Amino acid sequence: MGYNAFEEGKLREVLADEEIKRTGAIGIIRIRTAEDLVRIAEALHAGGLLCIEITMNTPGALQAIEQARERLPTVVLGAGTVLDGVTAREAVLAGAQFLVTPTVRLDVLEVAHRYGIPAIIGAMTPTEILTAWEAGATMVKVFPASVLGPRYLQEVRGPLPQIPLVPTGGITAENAAEFIRAGAVAVCAGSWLIDKQAIAEGRYEVLTERARRLVEAVRKARES
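^ that's the sequence the OP posted. Answer follows.
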């Protein structure tokens, strides 16, 4: 007996969810100009990042998701900064394998459930975190991590240890380990990872090296 559409969707959700948790790092591509987004994704992948998010406020995001799915079949590719259900559906149809929001957006979560892909819902306070989780979020993005810090994550996990948290905002190779040790299932790195000057100069190897350092920091933190 074969899978029906719902079962296939749930299988995709489990696989993407497991890969994000297994690798422990997501690279966020957010730039203001229509650069070669796929080339950037390739550079991050070369550094060992297997989970990459392209934000929907980046010009050409949908096309980049489509192209990257074809050229990087081993990468789990997601859409970030998804602010409404319409955008969520467009991203899924373009090939996004997970959705990320900056705030608690239940309409985005509804679309993710409909198509059977993970949703990482953004939240800040314990109430928002629990609300997102009880509504069915696969993981909860704690944002802005640069302001809250690893200690905040550790304290929140005291009463809410069952919720997988993904800190985002200000993550670098230097502080990623602190968040992992504080209990994060994964970290999201964006502005530090995507060196805009290096991109403008065509030095994509800079992005590859930063991706490698991030992946290595997560690995060492987990081993310790």
